[in-house]
Amino acid sequence: MRFNSLRLRKELFTGAAVADYDRDGWLDIYFCLYVYYQGTDQYKYPSPYYDANNGPPNFMMRNHRDGTFRDVTAETGLNQNNTRYSFACGWADFNRDGWPDLYVVKRFRAEKSLSQQRQRNFY
Length: 123
Hints:
mainly beta
């Protein structure tokens, strides 16, 4: 398995969720991130602590059916408001429209459900 356009990351992964978000028959992966790892003596603290919005961005990888994945975070709209500290994520059809919807648990904010529209974008 190879992840195209995935740079060497310095963030701590806290979770991943697998689903066929575009219903092409292949599983795609959404990754949650919590902190930037900068070494054992460094830590990037949430700021302001009660409402931090300076965390590492989560990202969505689309399966290309050949053992490779590509980052599609921006083209799916998942790059919006994407710098909160995330704990976990999961897929389910929350609105019962037949498409998988993404649920992300983030620190400093209530959980947020990202419902998918039929054109493979999230809002």
